[in-house]
Structure formats: C-alpha cells, structure tokens
Write a structure and sequence with these properties.
The complex is a heterodimer.
Chain A (H helix, E strand, L loop, with lengths): L1 H32 L21 H9 L2 H32 L5 H13 L2 H15 L5 H25 L4 H8 L4 H12 L1 H17 L2 H6 L7 H7 L8 H32 L3
Helix pairs in contact in A: 1-12, 2-12, 3-6, 3-9, 4-6, 6-9, 7-8, 9-12, 11-12
Chain B lengths: L3 E9 L6 E10 L4 E5 L6 H9 L6 E6 L2 E2 L10 E4 L11 H11 L4 H14 L15 H13 L5 E5 L7 H18 L2 E6 L2 H7 L2 E6 L2 E6 L1 H6 L4 H6 L6 E10 L2 E6 L2 E4 L14 E6 L4 E3 L8 E11 L3 E6 L13 H9 L3 E6 L9 E6 L4 E5 L7
Parallel strand pairs in B: 3-8, 3-9, 6-7, 7-8
Antiparallel strand pairs in B: 1-2, 1-4, 4-5, 9-10, 11-12, 11-14, 12-13, 14-20, 15-19, 16-17, 16-19, 17-18
Helix pairs in contact in B: 2-3, 2-4
The chains are: A mainly alpha, B alpha+beta.
C-alpha cells in the first residue's frame, strides 16, 4: 500500500511540476529577454547562460515615461476597485436581505451585465464620454470598468450576504443599531473575506485591462498595459524593451495579490467555525 | 421593567395563504418569567420576534408599557434578545461583543468597561474577554450571548430557545442559572422553547401554543394537572400521556369509564359528566399514574402484556400491548401526529425497583383522580 501511495505522490508532483513549467516558460523567456543583449534574444539554440545586462531597461526608460504609466495603471485599478466595492457591496446586501421574490433574479441580471461583450458597450460609451468631456481622462476608464465590475461585485456580495444568517444583524438591531449601523458594524466586517476576494478580482481585471484604456485614454493618461503594445515599433519589435516593461506591469499586481491574499486568509479564518 | 401585551395579534404571510399567528392575546406582567412553548411552527418564535420588532405585525396591537409598539424600530424598544444561534459578532472579542450594545447607545467608555467587567464576572467569562467567539466552547458562547443581554438594563429579555444547542448536562445547569438570574434582576422575561421540561421548571406562567393560537395560559403545575384540551395534555408531561377511546357508563349512579374490557371508576367530581353517560369520550392517563398491583383485577385496574422495557435507572418505562384498547391521539402538527400514530402503545412509568421482563402480563391500579376525560370530537377537557 505504501508503495502505491508513494508512486501516486510522485506522479502527482511530476504532473503539477510539468504543468507549472509549461505555463511559466513563456513568462520566463520574456523576463530573460530583458537582461539579454539585443543580439542574443533570438539566438538558436536559446542560450541558458548569458552575460546579464541592464541595457534593455535603459532603453525602456529612455522611450517611455515608466513612472507615469505605472501611476496611471494604479489610479485606474484602485479607482475602479474602490468605486465598484462602494456601490456593489450595499447593492448586494440590499438584494440579499430583500424579501422580494425577484431579488435573486435581479442579482443574476447584474451578473449578465458582466457577460456583455465590452466592445459592444464601448462605442456608445466613447461617444458619451466625448460629449461630457471626460474622454482621455482616467475617469473615463474608471467609470467604464466600474460599470462592468460593480455588476459582478453586486452579484458576488449578494451570494456572500445570502450565506450569512441575518441573526447577527438582528442582534445588532436589538442592541440599538439602525439598519445602516447593522450593515456597517456587523454585516460588512463579517463578510470581509468576500470583499477582499472582490477587490482582488476588480484589481486584476482593471490592471490587466487593455481594450478600454486603449480607446478611452490619451498619451498622458494611458496605463502600462496600453504602453506595452506601443513597444511594437513600426519597423521592428523591440523584444528587449517589451521584456523590461513587462516587469513593471507584472510586479505591482503580483505584490498586491500576495498582500491581499494574506488578508483574505486572515479574513476567512476570522469567522465562527 | 415592562409590561407587554398582545391584543388579537395576527401574522399572515403574503397572499394570506398561511398564518403564523391567529388572534393571539397575551398579557405579560412586569417582572414576570413567561414561557412560550409549543411544537415547531406553532408561532412562538414569531410572537417573540414581534416583541423585539424583528417581525412585522399584520393585525392587532402590541403594547409595551401601554405604548403601542407595532411600528417602533427595534432600537426604540430597548429590549435585549438572546438568539438560538447566539448570533455573536465573529469579528469582535468577547469583551467587545458584550460592550457593543452599550457603545452603540453612546455610554461613556469608563461606564462600559465597568459594566462589561461586572457582567463577565457574573457569568465567569473574565478570562475569555480577549478571545474571539470562534475560540469558545458552546457553553461559553451561550454565556456571552447572555452577557450581551444582561449588560444593558433593558425593558425585557427575550430568549429564543437559548439552550437548544447545548448538551444535556450543561442545559440543566444553565436552566437553573437563567432562572436564578431572572429572579435576581426581576426583569420581564419572555422565553421561547419547545422543551416542556424548560417550560415546567423555569416560568412563572407558561403559554402553550399550537398552530398559531394560544391553547392555555397557566402556572406550570396547573398545565400538568388541569390541561384544557388533549393538545396541552399531550405536550406537557414526559413521556407523553396515553389517550384511549372510552365510553362513559353509569355505575351505581356515578359515571365510570369503559375502556376496552376494563372498567375504571371516576372520582366524585365526575358527577358533572352524568348527562353524557353512554357517550364516546377519550380518556387520558399519564404514564406516571400506573401503579403495579398484585391484588384484584376488578374495576379500577387495567392489565396488559409488556412489549418492551426501558430501564431509566430510577424508573422503568414499560411499553405495553394495548390489546383491545383503541388508542387516541391529539390534534397536532402532522409530523408529531404521525409519530404518535405509528407507535400506538400504552406507556407506563413505574418505580425502578420492580423486576419486570418482556411478555409478562402486568396489572395496574389507576388512581381515579389522575384520569382526564376529553370530548372525543373536539378534544376539549370535560
């Protein structure tokens, strides 16, 4: 028996390792290009060992205002996340506690908004933003992404609140809270893990979003995801610069995910049971 | 301190198809421990939640201290409630849980700290004040829930089956503890339970409910001795009372009961039944009223074959073959009625010192004073 289970463990680990390597290989290649001299990037066979250089980073910094790009990405992602949670959480709560039999239907309707192909909404939205003068600003992307994410947050928080028995809020009411007090002091803190999961989702969506800022931002408000594409020049593709820029578009979001994940685990183990 | 009164209160759900409470009237005195008891779905929790302001009232009037409270928000009523699930705030420590109600009502920090300390000491929670509820045992959580109610000086305490999640031994302890605290503070308390032992031991008065209506409101002892109908008779008392179909017969001018082949005389007070002689009734005899007899098997005795013996230590619970006796049952919610129907056995509770085995035939003397007689159609006590 012991032999069988040992072999099983070995097989499991090999499979996991193989899949992980397969997924990470392109990322590793892209990252390694950032440290190679330009003439070695496409050497066949690929060189595993090379003299690392920071040349590509120098080129990237010369061609792009990296600081401004990262700042735009941060503003857009944080703005979207904040606004989506601020609107979506109370909406989800209201639907979860509603006595109407249409409440669940409404919640699914919100989920359906998330399924609309973004490009279909983008064109009228573009005209709308142009007319009210927000086109090209961070606001345009934040509002558009909030529309999509907020619907998802509403649906997700609806499920979270639905799974939470109303006893605790009722206890808060008899303890002297208003309906709003019960929501803010009891319902919100007890679904903290759910809110963090939503935040993480919004953050990743907005950070990696390319299509919407591509249309809605201008040169000085564009985020790093859009800038990555402009690394493709008209005559050639500067792979090294792309690799260097990819660092700045990957590291912040990975750090944020790790940071929030810690809170997520903490939040999840905080509840009763 | 408060008086609470229900006047013809009812609760119907959307569409008016089902009613949780029908024409419910009950007056709870200041300082009284009132127990609402009944099977699940009888409306007792609905009534309790109405007092708290958590359930909308669709008809009638609820008064707290002579103020109509139908539309008051929960926080305007100053009432403390202990929930069946305890409903502790999982993100707050024990101390913060207890302090919550005081803080929300804007008490001074020093006052809050002093009261929390006092309450924690009373409930022996002092060493757990910094723990989160997730790290407490069931009994400790229950005490925190109590503490959250006790720390304030509410108009009334409401308790919704607060002991049902505890194990039997702890439940017994907390039962006396809650009674003691209530007598000490003399705060009006409404206690909801489905456990008739809690109802019998804790309340000054007990309201027995079934199917959304009040069946009987009385002191515990009177519920046991003088139930108004078959439902109350079967709900109060454990193991439950035996119902047997019987005929009222005249015996030397006084009524007696013919139950199958057995003739049971009734006490002198049964004269009032004289005009019903010859009619069908239901006899109710509690298992405790069966006394083993070795003497005559004439009138006033009943014999039956033992099917099964449950040895409870102090007592023996005998399951008897009802033989030619037709068993009756109370009009209850369906689940319980099905259980009663499926085991139509006579039950007798006798002293544990008897040695009785299966298939033995045993004779019992029945005290005429312990026999209850009910109308066969309406189930009302005659």
């Amino acid at each position: 028996m012991a032999m069988v289970s040992k072999r099983r463990v070995f097989l499991e680990r090999t499979t996991i390792l193989t899949i992980t390597v397969l997924f990470l290989l392109p990322v590793c290649w892209l990252i390694s290009t950032a440290y190679k001299p330009s003439n070695q990037i496409f050497s066949v066979p690929p060189r595993l060992f090379f003299e690392p250089t920071l040349d590509q980073f120098r080129k990237a910094f010369a061609a792009f205002d990296v600081f401004s790009l990262v700042r735009s990405s941060l503003v857009i992602s944080f703005g979207t996340t904040l606004l989506s949670l601020l609107l979506g959480t109370p909406a989800g709560y209201a639907l979860a506690r509603s006595k109407s039999r249409y409440a669940a239907g409404f919640a699914y309707f919100f989920l359906a908004i998330r399924m609309i192909p973004a490009i279909a909404a983008l064109i009228p939205f573009y005209l709308l933003m142009r007319d009210i003068g927000l086109l090209g600003s961070w606001w345009a992307v934040i509002v558009f992404n909030t529309m999509l994410n907020c619907a998802f947050v509403t649906w997700m928080m609806f499920s979270y609140f639905k799974s939470l028995p109303p006893d605790m809020e009722e206890a808060a009411l008899t303890d002297g809270c208003t309906q709003m007090g019960a929501f803010l002091k009891v319902a919100v803190p007890t679904t903290r893990s759910g809110m963090i999961a939503c935040a993480l989702f919004c953050m990743m969506f907005s950070w990696n979003d390319f299509l919407h800022p591509m249309f809605l931002t201008t040169l000085d408000s564009k985020p790093i995801s859009v800038a990555l594409l402009t690394a493709y020049g008209t005559k050639d593709i500067t792979w090294g610069t792309l690799g260097a820029l990819a660092h700045f578009s990957t590291i912040p979001i990975v750090l944020m995910a790790l940071f929030m994940n810690r809170y997520f685990v903490q939040g999840a183990t905080n509840g009763v049971q | 301190m408060a008086q609470i009164s229900f006047q013809n209160v009812s609760k119907t759900y959307a569409g008016g198809k089902s009613a949780a409470l029908t024409d419910f009237s009950l007056s709870i005195n200041d300082g009284e421990f009132m127990v609402l008891v009944g099977p699940s779905g009888c409306g007792k929790t609905t009534a309790l939640r109405m007092i708290a302001g958590l359930e909308e009232i669709t008809g009638g009037t609820l008064r707290i201290n002579d103020t109509v409270a139908n539309d008051l928000a929960p926080r305007e009523r100053n009432i403390a409630m202990v929930f069946q699930s305890y409903a502790l705030y999982p993100h707050l420590t024990v101390g913060e849980n207890i302090a919550f109600g005081l803080k929300v009502r804007g008490a001074k920090p020093e006052e809050v700290a002093a009261k929390v300390r006092e309450t924690a000491a009373l409930l022996e929670l002092t060493e757990f004040l910094d723990r989160k509820p997730a790290r407490l045992s069931g009994g400790q959580r229950q005490r925190v829930a109590m503490g959250r109610a006790l720390v304030r000086s509410p108009n009334a305490f409401l308790m919704d089956e607060p002991l049902s999640n505890l194990d039997a031994r702890l439940r017994g302890q907390m039962r006396t503890e809650i009674s003691r605290l209530q007598r000490m503070r003399a705060v009006t308390t409404v206690y909801v339970t489905h456990d008739q032992v809690e109802a019998m031991t804790m309340g000054h008065r007990v309201a027995v409910m079934n199917k959304g209506t009040l069946q009987q409101l009385d002191a515990p002892r009177r519920l046991y001795d003088n139930p108004v109908n078959m439902f109350v008779a079967s709900f109060i008392g454990s193991p439950p009372i035996n119902f047997m179909e019987a005929t009222l017969v005249g015996r030397d001018g006084t009524p007696a009961l013919q139950i199958g082949p057995f003739l049971l005389p009734l006490p002198a007070s049964a004269e009032r039944l004289a005009r019903r002689i010859g009619g069908k009734v239901v006899a109710g005899i509690r298992p405790e009223a069966f006394k083993v007899t070795t003497g005559s098997t004439g009138p006033g005795t009943l014999s039956a074959r033992v099917l099964f013996v449950e040895d409870l230590g102090a007592d023996l619970l005998l399951h008897l073959d009802s033989g030619e006796i037709a068993m009756g049952h109370a009009d209850m919610i369906e689940d319980e009625r099905d259980v009663m129907k499926s085991s139509p056995k006579l039950k007798a509770m006798i002293d544990g010192s008897h040695r009785i085995s299966r298939d033995e035939s045993v004779s019992f003397a029945i005290d005429p004073g312990a026999i209850l007689v009910f109308d066969a159609q309406t189930g009302v006590t005659l």
